[in-house]
Design a protein that fits this description.
3 domains; about 425 residues; mainly alpha
Amino acid sequence: MQSAGTLHGQLQRGLGRAARRAADRPGAGEYVYDCIRRDPRWDPQCETRSLYYARLMVDLELPVRPVAEHLFDPADQGEGDERRVLLALRVLTDLARLSRREAAGVLRRYAEEGTHWLDAVEALIELGDPGPAAGMEALVDARCDDATLNLLIMGPSNPVIESWAARRPRIADALSRVREKGRLRRTGTGSGAADRSRRSEDELLELARRRDDAAVGAIFELGRRRAPGLLDLAEELLPQRPSRWGGAVCRALREYGPEALPRARAWASTRGGCADMGLAILARYGTRQDIPLLMTELHDALERRDWGDAAGPIEGLGRLRAGEAVPLLKSAWTESTYAFLRPRVLTALTRTAPHTAESYTIEGLWDCEEGVRQVASQTAPLTRETRIRLQRLHHDEAEEPGVRAAAASRLMQH
């Protein structure tokens, strides 16, 4: 990862300032291609970059050919690393949404010839346009077993799947099965939940300690009741190795409320197996007395460059409007290689230092993360430049619905 002070490093991080600077910087296009080839995301499961890079390719009038050459490089042959091509496929998908039709052609060719062809098929389905996917039903039918075919059917209504189903009985049967499962889920009964609601707290704790399928439901019911026994259960399960039951306890405690604060403070201060959960509760429900601990945690996380551990303290300090956190928040915005952190940073800045936050909200209108663009659309000062950007976000069909709605709402203000 390049330095955050360079254009290349800012493009890798998906920062809005880089998107605004790129048009005036010779060689910016090569940096964009490098990002697409090397996928700089710290956590690909959470972070988005594809629309950001696709928009840069449109704005800089960059050809699709280098992305295609990357996809069909000999390194793709055999059991190549899927991550090597996933971002490139996502960029091509967003380019197609931005009316770069040649991108859909590359997607189709990769679906026919590439090693990770299934990812390209999913992208073509996601586009929802039968045109680029026309005639591919034979390939899908031949290569996909029943389980894979069911996974490809993303919902009850997709023009691509429906066009294939009209020509292939096996795809039509799979579509019918998926629709039937959806209908059964919508009409299912809540008998299990009703049974748990009649049990005592001791009975639920006994169920939870069995560590079988029924345990998860019992844990959630304890959380719904805000039962003190859930806190004891956390001390039993969380210090052990990660498990589905420990994960269920964590999810249940997130909704437990401020009643958990005394125990959470003890967990966070002793640094034992429940420390992470204690910090998460303090971030969500803590009071001003918890600011020093949250500040220490944020400082240490940034020093370690452990961006995941920084998320909770940032949320908590923002919720508590801790002005002393502003320098750390600004550092996290610029330096973090985890773009998914920035929506939290921007929300915290707008709460703790509205005037300081203005320049960050303007920059955020060009950010790679949907959450940043949405917060920025709601809070950026209205100037000639930001109005033009908001209009683009509102009218861009490739943009996420929440961002489009926020931009439209803001444009109605005078």
